[in-house]
Write a structure and sequence with these properties.
The structure is a single chain. By secondary structure, the chain is mainly α. It has helices at residues 3-26, 34-39, 46-75, 80-101, 136-154. Helix content is 64%, strand content 0%. Helix 1 (3-26) runs antiparallel to helix 5 (136-154).
Length: 158
């Protein structure tokens, strides 16, 4: 597999995912602000959190790209549709497992059990991240399909 390409193509795929998510947020399709959610893991200041969250997201994108690259290597080929299928698996885990569990570990996110004394500043995403808008699952699925397809298109077996 194209292990040298993994670094560059992981960044390109993450950029594609990020552009889709931010454009959807700016268009009012979702309230999910991924850099803010990730950045508030490390700082309470929203402006600094968005910067920190952007870099955390880039790093996470690289880690996931490494996993996609390993799967492509095991399969002996990389295609846009295999990448998109991996993106579908990836987003299924994100929307049904990772995001619903996030309030349990995020220091600044409310939970469904948070009482009136809660100092949380972020709303919990809920199942499928529906608390951030009815179109959030569709936008998130589209973004992850694009992420996987970009990796599948650009990574090549050696």
């Amino acid at each position: 597999m194209d292990w040298q390409g993994w670094g560059l193509f992981g960044l390109l795929a993450t950029a594609a995912l990020t552009v889709i998510m931010i454009a959807a947020q700016m268009a009012g399709l979702t309230r999910l602000d991924l850099p803010l959610v990730l950045g508030t893991l490390v700082t309470p200041d929203p402006d600094r959190a968005r910067v920190a969250g952007f870099f955390i997201h880039l790093l996470a994108g690289q880690v996931f790209a490494l996993g996609y690259t390993a799967v492509f290597g095991l399969l002996g080929r990389a295609t846009w549709w295999i990448g998109a299928l991996l993106g579908l698996l990836h987003v299924a885990v994100v929307l049904t497992v990772i995001l619903p569990l996030l309030p349990g570990v995020h220091p600044r996110m409310a939970s469904t059990r948070a009482g009136p004394r809660s100092t949380a500043v972020l709303e919990p995403p809920g199942l499928l991240a529906l608390n951030y808008g009815i179109q959030t699952p569709a936008v998130t699925i589209l973004a992850h399909l694009a992420y996987g397809a970009v990796l599948g298109l650009l990574l090549r077996p050696l």
